Amino acid sequence: MRTTAAVVEELVRELPLLEEGLAEGILNLSALARRLRPKVEDALSKGVSDAAVMMALKRLAPRIAAQDRSIVKLLRQMRDLTVRSSLVEFTFRSSPTLLERHRNLLLSIAKERDAFLTYTQGVFEVTLIASARMAGRIEAAFGSEQLVSRLDDLSAIVIPLPPKSVQTPGVHYTLLKQLALAGLNVVEVVSTYGELTIVLAKDDVDRAFSILKRFLWP
């Protein structure tokens, strides 16, 4: 049988900013309980008091705060961030010939040092993010493919993640939230097992770097 506490937690977890406010202790729990009570009653098909909802919120807040602290502690094991400048992004419509064109592009840059290239295969599209100096070669290699979008003047912040990040819910969200709260637009996010790459407009990257640095190493 579902309980008031379980339903309250589900409702809070559905709204990340609400979860954040509860963890920080900056919400009016009485007002929040009144707002959530009708939804709790619908979920349980019975009446619930504001006091019961508020008690569930009070008990949930320390658990959320502890989870947030564990994520931050994990992230602060990192020791550096890397900025890559002068990037360009191409997105092409998927086709049977894209993989061969990608292979040829990789062969053409195999001996280049410090070349930056990511290739993301979606269901209907493929996106390449590369050093701007490679733009001509990408245009030549993929010239007959259907271009969906090209974005210039991009930069990226490459974040090396601790191995435990893969098994820890909320790691990517915690980092991206810092940028969202500052009103910074993220153009793309690319990840591997041990790296998170956040792509932004070049005019935003310095501010984003400073925000992440202050958050990780206050």
Overview of the structural elements:
The protein is α+β, with helices and mostly antiparallel strands. It has 2 domains: 4-70; 82-216, 2-Layer Sandwich (VC0802-like). It contains 8 helices and 6 strands, in the order H-H-H-H-E-H-E-E-H-E-H-E-E-H. It has helices at 4-13, 16-24, 29-44, 50-75, 98-108, 135-141, 171-181, 202-216, and strands spanning 82-93, 117-121, 125-131, 147-160, 188-191, 195-201. A hairpin with a 3-residue loop joins strand 5 (188-191) and strand 6. Helix 1 packs across helix 3. The longest helix is centred in the first third of the chain and has 26 residues, at 50-75. The two termini are 44 Å apart.
What's the CATH topology label of the largest domain? VC0802-like
Major beta sheet, strand line-up: 2-3-1-4-6-5
Overall number of domains: 2
Roughly how many Å is the radius of gyration? 22 Å
Terminus-to-terminus distance: 44 Å
- Helix content class: 40-55%
The beta-strand count equals 6
